[in-house]
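Per-record layout

source: Caenorhabditis angaria
name: Exportin-4
length: 832
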Amino acid sequence: MNCLIQLASLTGDCMPVSDQQKCIKYVSMYLSNLLELFQQGPSPTETNHFCMIINRLFLYRPLVSIMKQEAELRNRFFGFLKDYTIHLTGQAMQKAIGQAEHDDHASLVLLYDALVVLLRGRWRTSFENQEEADLIDNELIKWPTLMIINAFMVNVLASPQGNRPNSLDEDEGDETEDRILFNDLFTPLSSMICYSIPEYLEMMTINLRKSLNEFTQMATGASDSSRLPSWQEDQHWLMLILANSVVGEEVDGACHVAGDVYDNTHHLFQEGRSFCPQKKMQFLQICMENPTSDRAQFSQEIDPFIQLLGELLAWSAIEHEISTNPVSREMTSPELARSTFFALKRFLNAASSVTEYEKWNCYQGLPENGLPLIPDDEEFSKILVRFVVNKVLSVLLNYGGEERLCQDAIDCLLGLVESRAAAIATSPELFEYLKSLDISKLPNRANLMKALVLIGAAANDLDLQENMFKMILVPLSDQFMAACQLESSTAIDSQIVDYLQCFDGVAMGSQSHSAAVLFNFLYNIICQCVPLMRTRSHNEIVVSSILQLLFDVTTKVSIYIDNEEESNRLYATLLQIIDCYRADQMKRFSGMQIDDEDKASDLVLFIEILSNILSKDFLALGDANCSTGAKVVIASLEMLLTIMNEKMLQMPEVAIKFFRLILYLVEYSPEALTEVSDVLMSSLCECMKLGMTGQFGLEITSTSLESLTEIVFHFGGEKNKPRCTVNLAQQFRAMLPTVFETCLENTCETSIYSEACAALYSIIAFEKGFFDEYVGDLLSKKSNEAAKQVLQEAFTDLMKEPPIPGFRRGRIQFRAKMEVFLNKIQGLLSYC
């Protein structure tokens, strides 16, 4: 099977892609034998290998080599592929859902990815016979794809709609959620769906209507409610399919409607169908306010995508009504509510965003209000916002302990911020709910505060922003200040942590246009953290929460502050916090074990704060600027170097962050090195020397070498060399052997070899006598006596043109000379 996989992906000199006829002939031979070999399909132990073969055929070979096969062979292959994909879809989903076994699931992903390549690449293959091209599109691609989509739906729905087995619960955790666990299937499934948009929109709309009707009958007692648990699971899967079908989500959370949906709308427009904007608003309003009413009269007057959105809104409205009624609350479930919010967030955000694609469509004669988008009407926006705010805030109020559900609800609210921030900020329902909601007690307090800050900033109205500031931020600040004055106790300290997490959410919601206001607010909180670090030094959770707040302030807020005075105020306060941390927290790390993750995370957070400060440090050093970012970092390094021993550096994340911090310091603020004490500089050099040994990984070796290069380069310049102390120069001398050996031992590791050559060049340029002395010691070793003459000539040739201090181009030339030098001394030099 492995050999067949290799043959399926055969390319390169033995099978040049440019020779199309040879490719077609080779694939013909391969497919003929493959179909003969697997007439009955692969055995269970061959499943994954077989799917890999199909995957490689489509991904590693030009698609034309498959599409241009003889009609009989092509039809047999596509027919077999369709049948086997449908078979494996059932087998994989039955095992994944019913037995929590995912081997066939992983194999199915390979087939789905191959089918996506076929769908996306089909248009690059042209046929002389249009009838043949239409036959391929319809009989071999479109309808088989619809059958595969239907097979997936049948296997995730219970009887009578499908044949989903009883679910076997897997271990709890984010990775076992269906939306994440099956994302590798949902992604290619979305591409398949977009190939058959009209059929999918109609099928999914019908499914949602049937599901809604069944639930309504159970809720009113018109039918037996024994199927309710299965129905909830069915609806959960329908919501997941919906969220991953005709709408997509980018990495930054922004959503979009698939371009094929616009193509479908434009196609209907060209056929003479037009959709009334007023009818669209009327239809969506009915779905939200009277979801059980008959909406059949709108079927020909509303765009198919909007009809599907309407059914989603109708279910969301019914779910909200059920969940807010104590009598019927048990008819829905938190997991189903999460899936509903997941789909609702994507649809609302996608259908509210105007993209370049939609603007392009406008030039094709299709009016803007005819696009498959939510109407941009002020009155309708109020209705939509009221609906979403009621649904989201009622969940936060009634299900505050369901952290994941609350997070999905908050994300749904955020989905409307970009398009309707002002309407949300003026919503009476929002403030009515907030009055009865203790934000600091919610598990998702940080994310809710982030959402509220984003809403206020996006509203772009000073009066609205001032109102939200007074109603939300000021009371939280006052309560926090009052709590800080109380004696430490478990309950009080827990409240303080809750407030700190709220303020952390404020920092996370900062943007360039809102940073100045938020900085002034958060600075007062940070100032209060100084005495808090002293009075609560025994409480690690409080200390961690303060560090997290500082991290997000330096990441999201202070980075936008250009005022020198405000930056200096922040740095001065950070210096006080560092002093407290040094005095009270350093003892925590003295007996630290490698597997002590909580303490390590604290330390990583502290180092990241310092890195953020360096990236913001734009001020010049001097007596007047005693609290610049570089000086804050130097003060912290004195503390960190006392604990950075070999045991501490065995923690990968701590080690990487620490050595990167050193690199940032010497790159961003090399001038600050002249103010570092001899003792600190010696400790810094010893730490870099330890990093060069290679025992902590290649990245740390490379970072240590790069840092050393920058330091030596700085002090090697004509202006700064007089500032270099005798002790520091001796440190460079002591590190030269390690650098030279690192260079010789890592010729195959390009990045490390390059950095080692640069560091060696910098030290030689700083003081050539150090290198001459080292070479003399090498040549005097007894083990080098036999090859002494050859080695001496090689070193002489290497140093024909002595390196020049500060000459960066010389580093590249020196590296080329080192390669010649290494070729000359292969196997001859001993430095042990």
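summary: The CA atoms of residues 39 and 442 lie 59 Å apart. The beta strands are 247-249, 255-257.
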